[in-house]
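Example 3.2
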Amino acid sequence: MASAIVSAIIGGAIANLLVVYPHSTMTDAELKSELLVIKDWFIAFNSNFVDITGKLPSSTSSFPVAVMLATSDLHISTSSPNERVHITGRLSTEAAWALSPKENNCCVHIYAENNDIDDGYDNWLLKNKSRSKLSSPDIQAKVATALANNRGTLGKGNLA
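Structure, written as tokens:
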């Protein structure tokens, strides 16, 4: 369980994305590789670039995104085994994350080039626009542990 910050210049301003991993344990090198893919997706999403089916991020309640709860790092879906490997993220705006309990307002799949995290970002899919609350004591504890294990900012320190 860990968290980290991804910073990017979007629309001429610095934007930050808090990435929270409540289920995964990664080395700094693994985390850095995945965050590099997430950074390029973050720029695309908050720049309102369409997904692979033509859906706009601004059609969701999670635009602009400020927090991504990474429910799965790069994986093959058990529910959609024919889909490309992807990172699954539940998205929150700053306001939704500040609620008690915290809320996510959509789910995305983020694809790596050649299905390999080290090859960088390729594209993304808006999986659904369903809202979920982090009301389970178990998930709240995991998120708190992940936030307490903040690894820093991509491009700095151990994530440089």
